[in-house]
Design brief:
By secondary structure, the protein is of the alpha/beta class. 39% of the residues lie in helices and 19% in strands.
Length: 279
Amino acid sequence: MADNAYRMRRLFHPDSGRCLDIAVDHGYFGQGAFLSGIEDLPSAVEVLAAAGPDAIQLTPGQARLLQRAGGRGRPALVMRTDVANVYGSVLPDHMFSAIAPEPVLTAVRLDAACVVVNLLDLPGRPEVREACIRNVMELRQQCDEYGMPLMVEPLVMAETEAGPYTVNGDVDLIVPIVRQAIELGADVIKADPTDDPSDYHRVIETASGIPVLIRGGGRVSDEEVFRRTQALLEQGAAGLVYGRNIIQHENPAAMTRALMAMLHDGADADRALEILRTS
């Protein structure tokens, strides 16, 4: 079994022990609404990489945009391994979650620091959760062989009257699926915020010492991003995986710097907002 600690050190900041991973893997899911702000992905990745986050999350087909740019100080690559069709505004009759062939070997070739995979819990769709469990187990085996850290994204979804799924922030539902991800061998957890941020310590506790990164979700106001981030970090979260709240912002680089200040310099929500507005 190869040691994944070498790559884990590339993912987390050496002083704070925290990580900002900017997710720009949205195109993998085939939804046009996800592409706002990243229509020109080469330019978007260039801007984000120059802002200096700890990591950028990309797909196998787009990882080259990060890895061909800059020098050894560029952000680490977190590579998305799975694709699902569960995010559309109109839900299909048949839902799936599938991983790419030899995903971890591909990640090694692309010099990734981590791979990420979903663990989805959809109302009335146990077959999708089964597929996700199989994906996680297969990745765990491959990650052990190649010394690759495995980030699992356990997501509890809720139905809406309009049809599509939305985030379910019920802590009593989040905790069991996070625990399942840990039992399946996750090295890093990417979990949704709880409806009440003061409950997030329960998610941290069930992770049993495995670092938990906060999933950003849909676009909200700057004030809400920083307020929520501060509250969740105070509960023990080890970092952030934010996408649309950075890439759809009018100043993605400034938003990146503000969030990095919160993670690594101890800035509070007010200070982060000041950094954003003066950058």
